[in-house]
Amino acid sequence: MIGDNLILLDKVDSTNNYIKKHWRELPSETVVWALEQTESYGRKNSRWYSPLGGLWFSVLFKPRKRPLIPYYYLRMYSLVIYNVLKKKYKLNPIIKWPNDILINSKKVCGILGESVYDGGSPSCVIVGVGINVNNELREEISNSSIALKDVVGKEIPLRKLLNELNHVAYHSYYLKYFKPKAISAITKMWLNHLNVKVGDKVQVSTENNGSIYGIVNDIQSDYLEIIDDNGELRKINSGELIVI
User: Fold this and answer.
1) pLDDT below 70 — which residues of the chain?
2) Is omega for the bond preceding 98 within 30 degrees of 0, making it cis?
3) Under CATH, to which class is 201-243 assigned?
4) What is the pTM of this model?
5) Cα end-to-end span (Å), the chain
6) Under DSSP, is residue 149 helix (H, G, I), strand (E, B) or coil?
7) 3.30.930.10, 3.40.47.10, 3.40.50.300, 3.40.50.2020: which CATH number matches 6-193?
8) Whole-number Cα distances in Å, 220 to 72, 97, 223, 225
């Protein structure tokens, strides 16, 4: 089961980095949980502030008889966190493409998927999860981020939340859908809960190209395909997305 092998660290640079260093000797479904991270990161190596009070953990997957396709594991944890927050805590989260969880339009969780490759195929997949739970938010991100304790009105036990998330991941998704004929259902569920749909009119603000306006033509885990206002097909790998 996910989390049967749990490694708890007081402080580490990054739980993803820890697994990347030790993945060969660790069993599949190992969870590495750190009370504090000093050099955590998200997509495009963006810095993720990880102080005491948040829930920062990574999960190692190297199954022998289940598909090892990286983006399915990322989508699984997006769905897991979405459903736990909705059903357990009666909140109204949304999944913001591709891997953020928002509450009240503010970021409460980021998820990062990484793979270690041996030759041309992945040997393992690592899913890193960072959730603002009981931690205080820095002033510069307080307008765009939120902590669970400030939404539910009380502190949440971190170990209990960690166990809930991994229990749901294992029993409701991993055992049920990570089979060759069933795994595509993960993508369908992920698409259903995304904040953007094919056909939506969107504005994407990027670092290099300014704002791009267009219609969403395709949605993938690592890019959006947009037909811009000039009729040009554009692939957007990152940026701030607003549905118009």
Assistant:
1) 41-48, 207-209, 221
2) yes
3) mainly beta
4) 0.91
5) 42
6) helix
7) 3.30.930.10
8) 11, 9, 5, 8
